[in-house]
Amino acid sequence: MSTMKLTYWGVRGSIAVPGQNTVRYGGNTSCLEVRAGDTRVIIDAGTGIRGLGSTIKSPEEIYLLFTHLHWDHIQGFPFFTPIYRPDFTIHIYSGHKADVSLEDVMKGQMQEPNFPVSLGGLPARMTYNEVHKGESIPLPGVLVKTTDLNHPNDAMGLRFEADGKSLVHISDHEHTPEHHPRIVEFCRGADLLSMDTMFTPGNYEAFRGWGHSHWLHACEIARDAGVKRLVLFHHDPNKTDSDLDAIRDEAASHFPNTVVAFEGLCIDL
């Protein structure tokens, strides 16, 4: 039996892009699921969370961790079916922001005229937990460590540790030389690194300052941190399946154990 299992339910950044050019990798925005024993942790609530919610039938406690609160990471939350059931408890976590509370952000996207159901009208029991930079989150059967990332309005990197296994999820983050030593240490020895690689080395300069990395950044971090496996994530909505195939092949020439995230990808650790 595996210690942890990671499943990708949405792999795109910025906006959902269903269509004939995104069939194989998928067009939903960010959502991942980590299972550690009986504990279910969801990372972000982009449009991919709708599909995940439809698979959860029995009442349980769910832990929902937001890397940050940009639209593409929260927009699927109102369509997550467990929030409409009183027999579910959902513990929501996000980085602390002094000027606005996590609960107020979640209320904002569901208030009139944006959505017909208010956050306060949802039947599920919900708790709101704000995490300070570098703070750890002890969950049943798994410890989640955090670090701050280089992204507009901030973002939070996550490291999951359980029974000697570890996986790291870095999204959204613009990697620069001054961040390299700290991020490498955060990823040190991880069994798996899942990382934002929205850009390519060829087009990164045109988007410098937007808060995203490219696949070569991820390969360099994985190599220097001694990571065992690398997954490229948070794909540019303009990238087609063929584009991502080409990125996969080129990245694997720099870090051989590299795959490109697609909807339905499931990895046992």
What structural class results from the helix and strand content? alpha/beta
Beta-strand content = 25-35%
What's the arrangement of strands in the largest beta sheet?
6-5-4-3-2-1-14
Intertermini distance: 9 Å
Radius of gyration: 17 Å
Count of extended strands:
14
Highest CATH level, the class: Alpha Beta
- With helices defined by DSSP (H or I, 4 residues minimum), what is the helix count? 6
Number of domains: 1
What is the string of helix and strand elements? EEEHEHEHEEEEEHEHEHEE
Largest sheet: 7 strands, mixed
Low-confidence stretches: none
The name CATH uses for the topology is Metallo-beta-lactamase, Chain A
CATH-scheme architecture: 4-Layer Sandwich
Looking at the structure, what is the overall shape?
globular
Query: CATH homologous superfamily?
Result: Ribonuclease Z/Hydroxyacylglutathione hydrolase-like
Approximately how much helix is present in the residues? 10-25%
Average pLDDT, rounded to a whole number, is 96
What would you note in describing this structure?
The protein is of the alpha/beta class and 269 residues long. The protein has a single domain (5-268), classed as Metallo-beta-lactamase, Chain A (4-Layer Sandwich). It contains six helices and 14 strands. It has helices spanning 49-53, 71-74, 102-109, 180-187, 215-225, 241-252; strands at 5-10, 31-36, 39-43, 61-65, 89-95, 125-131, 137-139, 142-149, 155-162, 165-170, 192-196, 230-233, 258-260, 266-268. The longest helix has 12 residues, at 241-252. The protein is globular, with a radius of gyration of 17 Å. The model has no long low-confidence stretch (mean pLDDT 96).
